[in-house]
Amino acid sequence: MENILHDFEEKVISLMTEFLKNSIEAGGLSNFTDNLMDNLMQLGYDLTKFSLEYAEDIIFKIKERKEQFESLEKDNRKIITVFGEIDFKRRYYLDKENNERVYLLDEYFKIAPNERLLENVETKLIEEAIETNYEKAGKVAAYKAEISKQTVMNKLSELNINLEEEKSSSKRVVDNIYCIADEDHVHLQKGGIEEPRLIVVHDSMVKNGKMVKLCNKKHFGGVYKGKIDDLWEEVLTYIENTYELDKVKNIYILGDGANWIKTGLEWLPKSRNVLEKFI
Fold this sequence. Notes:
The chain is of the alpha+beta class.
């Protein structure tokens, strides 16, 4: 545990030093928070793996365990958590009373024998599949652990979830939908510049003095080199799954009129481009 905490302390100091050094460059706080997220997720992975293996050692050393359970061989197990797929070791034990083999660690952490995805990962899969699609759900449910579309479909079937019914029963009815499209310029450490595309979808706004709050907003974005259609397809899928599209009067695409933004007019029905200066 001390080693992990020491490593994390060094990572925090390194991140802060790098941030202060580059704070005036493009990217700034945005780049820092991206790096921080990566490091926090890695810390979560390390702590979870450490906790599993540390608990196994504690179980192995407990006197009461030795009286009832005989230690057998160790083997590996993989399970997908929100921090990614974790590979850990645990022991098989023989129950001396009934001669049954058990994994005491699995019982302690309530991990089912054939469980591949933790419950909170399954929940994220279902929520994302209802809101977007199978492929996107498999990519975002667990950090850096892509789950296949077939696995997502199998899980929904196993839980008797009808995706179409879930989508249709939760759709919102609005007159207008707004898509704010913009791009950023990020200087890379290895040199060069990336231009991530960013889209925020919302259906209304609330003003509180000078402050404006976008309601029911959803963010999309990334680096779409030559594949801008993929971004607009994600936006369309979200809108179709979230709103009663036949009842929507207008979809406004707000931006500076760049070609990649105008591509949205080809994807989104009832859409019209509104130049940024008129927003």
